[in-house]
Amino acid sequence: MKPAKPNQLITALALLLAAAAWPLAGQTPVWAAQGGPTAAGDPEPRPSIEVEAVAQLYFADRSGLLLAAEARVMPRQADACQRAHWLVTELIRGPRHGGLPTLPPESELRALFLTPDETATVDFSDAVRAHHPGGVRGELLTVYAVVNTLILNLPEVAAVKILIEGREVSTLAGHIALEDPLNADMLLIR
Asked: How far apart are CA 51 and CA 8, in angstroms?
């Protein structure tokens, strides 16, 4: 038996692909059935299907030196601001699987909004400061637990601005500058 020529292999592969696709001819593409463009002649667009997402929340690892991700199923919420609110509320509730809390449980999320420039502004009650244990590393993990959780889970968020009681503050506990919006810090993740 002679080896097949390259042209013969390409022709055979094309015929095989065409035969496999033939039963699907005329069917609506999956993306259209899930709220994308509709097939010609459809009287109205199809509703989009909301899917739960798995979010990665960042808490201090057992050593207290780095952040470790903890997976949580995020409820169906179409609005990015609602998803951001849920993420920060879950950070305040603390870890479920062995990590260490990064936000004092007495903390309250007063407000959260997203700006057109993709900045999430997170406003905490003063309890986040009053009940914070302090220390450079602890403050770093608290700040970046919020920043990394929001930025790495929400494509609508590129930076995070932290406020306390509706006001800009220079730091949370004396070490990490909060005057400007912050970007994610991947070097803090284990």
From this structure: 44
Largest CA distance in the chain: 82
**Which is it for strands 67-74 and 53-60: parallel, antiparallel or unpaired?**
antiparallel
**Tokens standing for residue 78:** 């179409």
Phi, psi (5° rounding) for residue 154? -125, 110
CA 80, 85, 91, 97 torsion-angle sign: negative
Residue 122, classed as helix, strand or coil, is: strand
* Residue 185: other Cβ atoms inside 10 A: 14
How do residues 27-44 score in pLDDT, each as one tens digit?
333 323 333 343 444 444
Chain centre distance of CA 6: 46
pTM above 0.85?
Answer: no
Give tens-digit pLDDT for 62-95. Answer: 999 999 999 999 988 879 999 999 999 999 999 9
Phi, psi of 53 (to 5 degrees): -120, 155
Structure tokens at 180: 């400007």
* Residue 58 burial by Cβ neighbours in a 10 Å radius (0-12, 13-18, 19+): buried
Alpha helices in 56-185 (DSSP H): 80-93, 127-130, 136-153
Contact 146/161 with Cβ under 8 angstroms? no
Between CA 26 and CA 15 the distance in angstroms is 18
